[in-house]
Design the sequence.
């Protein structure tokens, strides 16, 4: 039995540890839509461009409390005609990626999507990602929805949603994936509101460290110390590599038990260390509020205090 057949067969069953079966996700869309870059950004949090995919990339990973087998299907015509049907038919979740800046191919993307829809499970939720929305010539959400004729979807019982995003900067991706996890989880226990903030570090847009904070009692701090140091190093690296972007976000897994959410705006880069099962979208909301809270002090030349801001504004999220 081939590796792929063994993988698909095994993932239909319960895991050896008694956990839930993995969710099979097919990421489809035209060539150059950004599917592989999106997958790398979510699965590995790499913020680099990807080469075109000629075939199928398969990844097994965990996001929050669920596990996914993701099939990244190349978007060239020969691949669509030969492999898509096989994988889309088995998928429990469909992610359709459209290049929001490639308006000339909107009609082709629409035709390809509805052709693929005929082979999907009737109840499989669909996540539409309008990628490359950071480009100046990108279509608006309304334009993409009209071009894909998503009003047809509203007349069905299928669950779907659309998010504007940028695979390059990470904007919108994690909010979209959190929506997908919540939909797939249904009655499973998945944390959706408060998170566990173990530590935080802030840099200015030039890569200068402004402040760092670690939360919890001494025992908790000692346990998270190694991950804390790693989070500072990774946040600094991100600050340097994304210096030319006004906004960006990425998520890294740290020591299996934690995830580091790094987000950037025009003035700051903020790294927040949270539990591996916590929703990233909640952290992005927190980060936005932190940016607002520290901006005035920063512009006045007053020292930034992450511990004070997080403890005052988000006492239920910070580990105590």
Sequence:
């Amino acid at each position: 039995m081939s590796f792929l057949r063994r993988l698909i067969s095994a993932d239909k069953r319960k895991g050896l540890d008694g956990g839930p079966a993995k969710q099979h996700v097919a990421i489809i869309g035209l060539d150059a839509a950004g599917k592989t870059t999106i997958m790398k950004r979510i699965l590995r949090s790499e913020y680099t461009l990807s080469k075109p995919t000629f075939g199928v990339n398969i990844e097994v990973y965990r996001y929050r409390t669920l596990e996914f087998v993701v099939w990244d299907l190349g978007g060239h015509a020969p691949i669509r005609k030969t492999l898509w049907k096989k994988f889309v038919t088995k998928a429990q979740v469909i992610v359709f990626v459209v290049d929001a800046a490639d308006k000339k191919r909107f009609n082709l993307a629409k035709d390809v999507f509805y052709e693929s829809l005929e082979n999907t499970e009737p109840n499989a939720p669909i996540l539409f990602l309008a990628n490359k929305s950071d480009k100046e010539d990108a279509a608006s959400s309304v334009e993409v929805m009209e071009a894909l004729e998503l009003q047809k979807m509203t007349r069905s019982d299928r669950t779907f949603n659309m998010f504007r995003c940028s695979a390059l900067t990470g904007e919108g991706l994690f909010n979209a994936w959190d929506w997908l996890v919540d939909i797939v989880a249904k009655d499973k226990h998945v944390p959706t509101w408060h998170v566990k903030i173990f530590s935080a570090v802030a840099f200015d847009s030039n890569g200068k460290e402004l402040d760092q904070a670690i939360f919890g009692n001494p025992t908790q701090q000692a346990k998270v110390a190694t991950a804390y140091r790693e989070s500072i190093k990774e946040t600094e690296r991100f600050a340097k590599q994304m210096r030319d972007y006004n906004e960006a976000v990425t998520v890294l897994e740290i020591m299996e038990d934690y995830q580091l959410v790094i987000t950037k705006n025009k003035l700051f880069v903020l790294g927040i260390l949270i539990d591996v099962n916590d929703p990233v979208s909640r952290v992005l909301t927190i980060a936005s509020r932190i940016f607002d809270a520290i901006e005035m002090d920063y512009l006045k030349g007053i020292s930034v205090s992450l511990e004070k801001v997080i403890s005052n504004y988000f006492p239920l999220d910070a580990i105590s």
